[in-house]
Amino acid sequence: MNTTAKLLLYCPDKQGIITEVSNFITINRGNIVYLDQYVDHVDNILFMRIEWEMDNFQIPKEKVKDYFDTLCAKKYEMEFGIYFSDQKPRMAIFVSKLNHCLFDLLSRYTAGEWDVEIPLIISNHEDLRPVAERFGIPYYYYPITKENKAEQERQEMELLEREGINFIVLARYMQIISERMIERYPHNIINIHHSFLPAFIGAKPYHQAFVRGVKIIGATSHYVTQDLDAGPIIEQDVIRITHKDTPETLVYKGKDLEKIVLSRAVNKHIERKILTYKNKTVIFS
Amino acid sequence: MNTTAKLLLYCPDKQGIITEVSNFITINRGNIVYLDQYVDHVDNILFMRIEWEMDNFQIPKEKVKDYFDTLCAKKYEMEFGIYFSDQKPRMAIFVSKLNHCLFDLLSRYTAGEWDVEIPLIISNHEDLRPVAERFGIPYYYYPITKENKAEQERQEMELLEREGINFIVLARYMQIISERMIERYPHNIINIHHSFLPAFIGAKPYHQAFVRGVKIIGATSHYVTQDLDAGPIIEQDVIRITHKDTPETLVYKGKDLEKIVLSRAVNKHIERKILTYKNKTVIFS
Amino acid sequence: MNTTAKLLLYCPDKQGIITEVSNFITINRGNIVYLDQYVDHVDNILFMRIEWEMDNFQIPKEKVKDYFDTLCAKKYEMEFGIYFSDQKPRMAIFVSKLNHCLFDLLSRYTAGEWDVEIPLIISNHEDLRPVAERFGIPYYYYPITKENKAEQERQEMELLEREGINFIVLARYMQIISERMIERYPHNIINIHHSFLPAFIGAKPYHQAFVRGVKIIGATSHYVTQDLDAGPIIEQDVIRITHKDTPETLVYKGKDLEKIVLSRAVNKHIERKILTYKNKTVIFS
Amino acid sequence: MNTTAKLLLYCPDKQGIITEVSNFITINRGNIVYLDQYVDHVDNILFMRIEWEMDNFQIPKEKVKDYFDTLCAKKYEMEFGIYFSDQKPRMAIFVSKLNHCLFDLLSRYTAGEWDVEIPLIISNHEDLRPVAERFGIPYYYYPITKENKAEQERQEMELLEREGINFIVLARYMQIISERMIERYPHNIINIHHSFLPAFIGAKPYHQAFVRGVKIIGATSHYVTQDLDAGPIIEQDVIRITHKDTPETLVYKGKDLEKIVLSRAVNKHIERKILTYKNKTVIFS
Domain with D46 in it: what CATH number? Predict the structure, then answer.
């Protein structure tokens, strides 16, 4: 497999941008293997994802970002990111006591389904250490109390820094992430919320759903922002229920939704197929 | 087709109730053609629907309710309703300006899909009179202002009374129904809300969904209660959307959801397959 | 509303085609309001849909096709079609005895939901004449027997020709369309099949689904080709069922699927958002 | 947790059966915790599932079957099975090379989600031994060739017998199960087929789906019978796809469907909520 470069960008839409970006690549002998774009006609913003093989590309990998910035991005006021397929993103998993999402993430990782490294799991409980050990992933225990929360998070962030973590997956982690950590990993913390957001924000959504008597329940994966359960939504899915369901059966049925919805979001993130704009996501296919 | 009786009831669950109710029917030579029951084990409530042919039934139709009350219902503290298939429920439709739900309801009615009478349509606008005329249904225009609302509703209720209306369908009717009318038709006013409740209560839910960036939209039919968009949910359905959708395309896609979800709810109501308890519905199959 | 031109094309993918097509439009002062493209990397085919306002376009409407053919299409071996928004496509509906799809199509038409003309309905039965009359659409009755089929179809085709029909919608029309008519309207005859194709091809698919004991049923709209129920699929949808369903309830539930799936397909066709290639469809958003 | 008895039965429907079965339990001081029934009115068959606590039950566990047979089953020509919650069913998993279903099954097992024992995994390849070892489950390797197939299956059956296996889950096992083994485990071998059956029976269904151009793909879990992919369907689910999907992305998306659909079926089987009749399943809630 050749190394590819993946370029994600958005900017005010003007004619010729797609051509100019394509030319930047092909003139320098990059072979384009993916191109998709979308224009938000309300705000007049172009969103674009382009991927090309680096084999014969004339610009060395370490200079691509600089060259693209100078030759294209500044000219069109682009926000952009460039990623190379031979640099696997490094992902940390945060868990508490529920194991279904963790099992699903580690199964896919172990099966080689994703181009990612998972060097560590962080938890505020010891419960899931055996799962981590089963899959051979280091497990770090940071019990959290009101008093020690700031200090523990500081230590967690040092660990994440030391391990070169690029993004964090909250796999049913039952602690609110502090502002400081969110700012350090903007649009790089993925949460799974066990409801069809924005319905049933906050605690015990299945119980809320039971009381409200809804006929369908859902799960939502989103980037974490300062507003609880209000960050950009990446993926949602739902399942039909009936009056026969109890809070317990909702929890059971919801687990499958949660793990699949979270893993779909993580997959899109790893593949660099998500752009975030105005608290919403553009998801490339 | 034989006339059938449909009995819907709920009561504290005790052993033998199903047998006793069945016996009440079979001893009196009723032929049971439908029996379904559900027990809420949390609240220990039995919900039951039973239907039988009246042909050889020993108790005359007009006395069934009284006999059942005396022989079964009082003994077990039942809430119950009895309906006969040869007495079609009479349904009023309330509309404003949007026609997709109205077309769907009248098409099914005209096609003979439902055992119902629709003697009238009420609107606060003249816009949909041509649709009513196309299907030959009397159309009553009651323009509503802050000043005249109470008086207009009073007249509407007189009309509904005069026409022997049993239940009301709000087919995208853009007025809040007053307390008085809700009390007159308890669990007999069906609304369609163009969101996946309880998400996006109130005005412009598709616009709210667009701003929030959800990946799935929905529609919800529910009985109208005093609390806005908070009555017992009868039916919900959803459709997947993407970042490419605009508020306009959401409105377009949502229309199909709304009309199908509303018609499913109306169908269940006409067939007497809904029991309401604790602001939730039990829907028989 | 300005008149727009809609250009649909596919051709072997080469670099620069999108730019060249865009330039053809913008150099001649067309304002592009829609552009979407898709590349099939297996067969290396580019599919593209582009739409622009004709207001200041330098090339007169009647010459656009010729100019585009000369300047772009031949060069890249394109298959293409050009359509103008002020020329509404003319659609014929074929029905037999079932009315739910017909009601849905005519409701949308009457509500002005689609940019289409429906000058006529053709049927092999008289049953649905009252529906046609209700909506004020001429209804032509061509009873079909083995003996008269060829002759009747000949007359139908004359009528279609006379009325300038562009495409045909088979709204549960229970006759096989002859080769001659299919060849006259290639990829312009839309059928709705009441199963999740390719499951349950042919007659009585709900009954087949009941016997097979499936847990989900579906409906499929597709272009008609010589092979029965095997043409390019435009749209499908499904609904969950249970062991409690009978062939009758499947028919009832399926009706809603059929009419929505058919109308979605018709909508895409009217909006010129479908390209057909290798017995498959590319559906633009 | 008290031990419960689970009774599943079907028989020609007659009045009073439900009462008589209930009485059999309550007279003998069993506390009923679940009762659901369904009548197939076409064939006039009653299907019933009833569960009760054994704590004070007067009939000793080992005699329940015999007593019920004598007192109820013979009288009404019932087919029935009785299971006790303290006797966990023993399940064998058969795999070949694909690991996603295996990971999902073992994750749920390890998490204690199911009341089941999994004493062994059988495979015709060595590939998944590391997965089995990770979860600490014995892994038996039986390579299959045309020549040795009968003999290998004989040895597998001896192993299954020795280990007291009650049912088998084919988790993407790529060998046809022989008649002999099917007869030994009637309605106790669960397969996952990676299509929406009966569409795309046999090999490479995703590739078939791609070629046919369907807009939705599915997965089906079913009991294995002599007819390939034609046994009673337990569960199905689907996911929407587009023209952008390739056979590879279908395989990827399908994996999630397969594992969830298979695990739902296994769960229903373990909970004794499936009755099989006329090559169809009745699934209790």
Answer: 3.30.70.260
